[in-house]
Design a protein that fits this description.
The strands form six sheets. Strands 1-2-3-5-4 form a five-stranded mixed barrel. It is of the alpha+beta class and 552 residues long. Strand 2 and strand 3 (59-62) form a beta hairpin.
């Protein structure tokens, strides 16, 4: 080792060399080319990487476009010397450069990695100094475009000899294969440190329709769109952007395929954990229809929380309903919570329950015997359907359409679109059915009789049934009244009346109706079935269609 003679004599102060110059000379001498030290990347510019190597002066080395270095990265570097400003000239190349042709032949035979310096860009590639002039094809440079090739000029690189002709002094080198080997080795190293379930930090490198690739430090993992958020139909660009630094959870590692599946939403609170408390049964909530299927519609209640309206819960009145006919994607709807299953992440919703049950009002409006009016909506072999409003339909059986004749089909007297009046015969809440009758509103014989008579009128009639002190009286065809009989009477039925001459009784009754009464002799007779007697109307119940008589 060279000796430094530093004298304490006064003559030292007159020397032109200061202590700092001597120290600089010492460092320059003792940090010879090739020394390897650990450094930390401080700054990265377009062309240069500045590294803190623990000395008074930082080091610098050319930036390799193929190597992604960031501030804070630790790496081993070789000191190649210092420039005129005292900055250490560094390199990451850890291999030696052959000194002669024999060294090149040995490196070629053993496929060893050697060091070299890029000197210039030439047609089709680069010129590299590996002890002799060598050619590196552009396709084997490890960079993609002309601009990056020019940045390699002056840089020290690692390469491998792929062709060696000592006679023609023709040497061809390959940098790309070395970079790929280094990358594979780095990936293997990183891959070996990863564990399923671990939370790691990475940088979003690429966005695709199906997700994002995240750089975990030399190896990529796939963050699938389904694992980005709890919300459905989300786009990757809605969640992350290229260059974002994010924490992700390792969901699966394929040891053979070397594929890594990542999750982001797994680090977020699961919104389903709050569903039972937030959405109790019977609650009215609003949401947006996110998608429509044949069996129903999905409604987003909040990001990550969807419920299903089954087609059976869409309408109170419509049968065989199609979800597409009721709601559309993007519709804002109000629904009622019908069921919650957090384990299976399912919520059953009802649309018709939020709209209100029109049958409640319909059954109050259309009570039995009330009169309804509406248009005929359809005709079937067994009857007709009448629109009563609010999507409520009533049904008229074919037997309740007409009194005049027996119908083979409702279209003999009705047509679709015709407005009709009908009487409510039945209102069934459980079966959601209203049965109507049209013929019940047609005038009958008793209706006409009541319309033509009043209490106090004297009329004639034939006793058809005598039972105790009561008797049923036929006042006309299809018209009957009731009377009380004086004293105890023997029971006479219509069967005994049948023994009388039906023709003579009819003629007698007709004559008595025309005369308006009977002779005094008839009054004295004991009332019996078949007699034609005189009566006075004591009362008429129009609603019940009942006529009370007094025997004269």
């Amino acid at each position: 080792m060279p000796q430094l003679n530093i004298s304490d004599s006064p003559e030292m102060s007159a020397n032109d060399n200061s202590f700092g110059d001597i120290l600089s000379q010492f460092e320059q001498t003792h940090h010879s080319r090739g020394e390897t030290v650990e450094g930390t990347v401080m700054t990265v510019t377009a062309d240069t990487v500045f590294v803190d190597i623990g000395r008074k002066m930082d080091g610098a080395m050319p930036r390799d476009p193929a190597v992604n270095l960031k501030p804070g990265t630790k790496l081993l570097v070789s000191i190649r010397g210092r420039d005129e400003d005292g900055t250490y000239q560094l390199s990451t190349i850890k291999v030696e450069q052959p000194r002669d042709w024999s060294g090149l032949e040995a490196a070629f035979a053993e496929k060893k990695i050697i060091g070299g310096t890029v000197t210039e860009v030439v047609k089709g590639g680069l010129r590299v100094d590996v002890g002799v002039r060598a050619f590196m094809p552009a396709s084997r440079s490890g960079v993609r475009d002309q601009a990056d090739m020019e940045k390699l000029v002056g840089q020290q690189i690692e390469c491998r000899i792929t062709k060696l002709d000592t006679a023609g002094e023709d040497v061809v080198v390959d940098r790309r294969s070395v970079l790929e080997e280094r990358e594979r080795a780095a990936k293997e190293e990183v891959f070996g440190t990863l564990r399923e379930g671990a939370i790691v930090r990475g940088t979003v490198r690429t966005l695709m329709d199906f997700g994002a690739f995240v750089d975990l430090g030399g190896i990529d993992g796939l963050l699938h769109v389904s694992d980005m958020a709890y919300t459905r139909n989300v786009k990757p660009s809605d969640v992350v952007a290229v260059g974002d630094t994010i924490d992700v959870k390792i969901l699966k590692i394929g040891k053979d395929s070397k594929k890594i599946s990542l999750g982001l939403r797994q680090l977020l609170p699961d919104p389903w954990s709050r569903v039972p408390e937030k959405y109790p049964l019977g609650t009215r909530v609003k949401g947006k229809v996110s998608r429509v299927a044949d069996f129903g519609a999905f409604v987003e209640l909040e990001p990550g929380i969807e419920g299903l309206i089954h087609v059976s819960e869409m309408s109170w009145t419509k049968k065989n309903v199609r979800a597409q006919d009721i709601v559309k994607e993007g519709d804002q709807v109000e629904v009622v919570i019908l069921g919650v299953n957090p384990a299976d992440k399912r919520i059953a919703l009802g649309l018709k329950q939020a709209l209100g049950d029109p049958w409640e009002d319909a059954l109050k409006k259309y009570t039995v015997n009330s009169v309804a009016e509406g248009k005929v909506t359809s005709l079937t072999k067994f009857g007709a359907f009448i629109d009563l409003g609010d999507n409520i339909e009533g049904m008229v059986h074919i037997g309740d359409i007409s009194r005049e004749k027996r119908l083979n089909h409702p279209n003999e007297v009705l047509k679709v679109g015709q407005t009709v009046k009908a009487q409510v015969l039945e209102a069934d809440k459980e079966r959601r059915r209203i049965r109507l009758g049209i013929k019940q509103l047609e005038p009958t014989s008793i209706d006409e009789y009541i319309a033509e008579h009043k209490a106090g009128d004297a009329v004639s009639g034939r006793l058809v049934e005598v039972s105790g002190q009561k008797a049923k009286v036929e006042l006309g065809e299809g018209v009957f009244g009731w009377t009380k009989l004086p004293g105890e009477q023997k029971t006479n039925t219509a069967a005994s009346a049948a023994k009388a001459d039906l023709g003579s009784l009819t003629a007698m009754l007709s004559q008595r109706w025309k005369s308006g009464g009977a002779g005094d002799a008839a009054v004295a007779e004991t009332p019996r079935a078949g007699q034609v007697r005189s009566f006075k109307i004591s009362s008429i119940d129009v609603a019940a269609k009942r006529i009370e008589l007094e025997l004269q």
